[in-house]
Give the backbone structure.
Amino acid sequence: MSSESIAEAVRQLQICDACRYCEGYCAVFPALHRKRAFADGDITQIANLCHNCRGCYYACQFTEPHEFDLNVPGILARVRQESWQDLAAPSGLARLFHSHGTALAATVVIAFAAMIWTAKAIGSAGGCASKQGAPSLGG
Ligand code: SF4
Ligand code: SF4
């Protein structure tokens, strides 16, 4: 996770901690008001409590063009994305998803379809064989 994103999230959340206008909007604000200092893990946890409704952004009196330039949903979304990329396993795939998400998703879908088609083909071939070998009940 980039320290720049964490530092920017801390800056914005400290302003919210002093303001408290959005306290009842969602779980983010009570969680951040319980803290006096923020570790990286605190910021990641708070970022994952946000569901990006943007209610606080439209209510905030400190968004652009105010000099505080607050965009709480924006910075929390950036932290979330970076934390998922950092914590996903295997890490190489996480980076690949970030840069070639559509191609990778299409490959996975095609691989699953091929697997299901193969299983179905094997199943019907096995079903025919067992029918051919089955004893007749009619004598
Ligand atoms: S988003 Fe703006 S209005 Fe809401 S708590 Fe933070 S500083 Fe206050
Ligand atoms: S955008 Fe996120 S932080 Fe802001 S009110 Fe909605 S859920 Fe809460």
Remarks:
- Residues 3-87 form one domain.
- The radius of gyration is 26 Å.
- The CA atoms of residues 1 and 82 lie 5 Å apart.
